[in-house]
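Design request, tokens follow.
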């Protein structure tokens, strides 16, 4: 996708012809997740697909937990979109997997990505509402999760954090720009370079023109 820079963007440097990887910290959303810690609710990260939910949960939020001194073995991370975890899409298998990893009374952070892939996921998550040492954070992106009704599925104990694709303000905070130069020029350059890369891939493969257009929007 051309604007696939919601979290990590690859800035094709036209002059130096090198890739520079930049991290967008999503500070606003991170603070919401941090402030919800200990509120006794299931933290639900919602938003359209490819807007950065997984990266926010598994990379940015997880990193903040480690920096706070939370031990790695007290962060239970499950990517349910990964084919290797297909068996964990069974609700009972997922419950058993998490329970086995919770071996003491210290607080555990349970991070589940694309939880809507689990049948009866509401029951799975509600099972941890009354577990005092469990903090549950999940992402979801299907129609049900984009509905305001999702909160009611957790007996009024769901806390939603709805995120959006990278804003220009977030982009410019990291990218900046040359003094006296319009920041839009930097954006246009980045998008143009991405288009050029996509076009080169098209020429060297059998990607159809229709698929190319879909990747550009």
């Amino acid at each position: 996708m051309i604007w696939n820079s919601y979290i990590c963007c690859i800035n094709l440097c036209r002059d130096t012809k090198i890739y520079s990887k930049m991290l967008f910290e999503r500070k606003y959303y991170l603070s919401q997740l941090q402030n919800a810690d200990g509120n006794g609710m299931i933290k639900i990260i919602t938003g359209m697909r490819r807007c950065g939910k997984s990266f926010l949960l598994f990379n940015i939020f997880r990193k903040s937990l480690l920096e706070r001194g939370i031990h790695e073995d007290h962060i239970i991370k499950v990517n349910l979109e990964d084919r290797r975890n297909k068996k964990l899409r069974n609700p009972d298998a997922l419950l058993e997997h998490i329970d086995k990893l919770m071996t003491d009374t210290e607080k555990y952070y349970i991070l589940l990505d694309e939880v809507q892939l689990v049948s009866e996921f509401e029951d799975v998550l509600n099972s941890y509402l009354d577990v005092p040492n469990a903090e549950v954070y999940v992402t979801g992106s299907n129609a049900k999760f984009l509905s305001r009704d999702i909160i009611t599925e957790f007996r009024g104990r769901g806390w939603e954090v709805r995120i959006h694709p990278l804003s220009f303000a977030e982009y410019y905070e990291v990218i900046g720009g040359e003094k006296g130069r319009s920041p839009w020029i930097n954006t246009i350059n980045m998008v143009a370079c991405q288009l050029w890369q996509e076009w080169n891939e098209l020429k060297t493969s059998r990607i159809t023109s229709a698929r190319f257009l879909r990747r550009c929007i």
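Comment from the thread starter after seeing the answer: thanks! Residues 1-20 have pLDDT under 50 and may be disordered.
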